[in-house]
Amino acid sequence: MANELNIALAKSGLTVTAQRYQAGASVGSAISCPETGSTGFYSGNMTGTAGTYQVAFIASSANVGSGSIVWDGTAEVATSTLTAAQVNAEADTALSDVGLTTTITGRIDQAISTRLASASYTAPANSDVSAIKAKTDLLETTRLAQCSTVSTTGAQLAAALS
């Protein structure tokens, strides 16, 4: 694939490079991201081995943007296609970099399963909801509209006392 690293900037004519990072350490050399015409849109070709990378876009020694990419070694992996096992592996790698270990999705699944199993709520049947609605639709509300409220009573008192 090509042009996986993209950034749109408000300024045209820059020399932009992308630097990959893993666990806070730079990986490999900077990747050139030439501009498409004079549009302020810069693109570069991702390189390197499979992994999840943080990418810093740099122009004139200044960070002008950042992002992340999941790379299988030849193409970007759409994050929506990651499996629970892949998410766990990436999370475990990131957590181990700071001295922690866990299985994120396993803990989420366990918490949800535990709550669902202990829930005592049962939704009412549609027929019960329909029966209640049929009764409330028959309620007479014209007298209710004629009742005095706190604000109307207050206004009436104020008018009477003035």
Note the total helix count: 5
Overall geometric form? elongated
Total domain modules: 2
User: Hey, roughly how much beta strand do the residues contain?
Assistant: 25-35%
Which structural category do the helix and sheet elements fall into? alpha+beta
* Average pLDDT level: 80
- Report the biggest beta sheet as strand number plus sense, adding barrel if it closes: 4 strands, antiparallel
- Uncertain residue ranges: none
Report the span from N to C terminus. Answer: 82 Å
Helix content: 25-40%
CATH top level assignment of the largest domain: Mainly Beta
**Order of strands, widest sheet:** 3-2-5-6
Order of helical and strand elements: EEEEEEHHHHH
- Give Rg in angstroms: 30 Å
CATH architectural group of the largest domain: Sandwich
Number of strands: 6
The CATH topology of the largest domain corresponds to Immunoglobulin-like
Task: Describe the structure in brief.
This protein is α+β, with helices and mostly antiparallel strands. The protein has 5 helices and 6 strands; from the N terminus they run ββββββααααα.
Q: What features would you highlight for this structure?
A:
162 residues; alpha+beta; Immunoglobulin-like; 2 domains; four-stranded antiparallel sheet; two-stranded antiparallel sheet; 5 helices; elongated
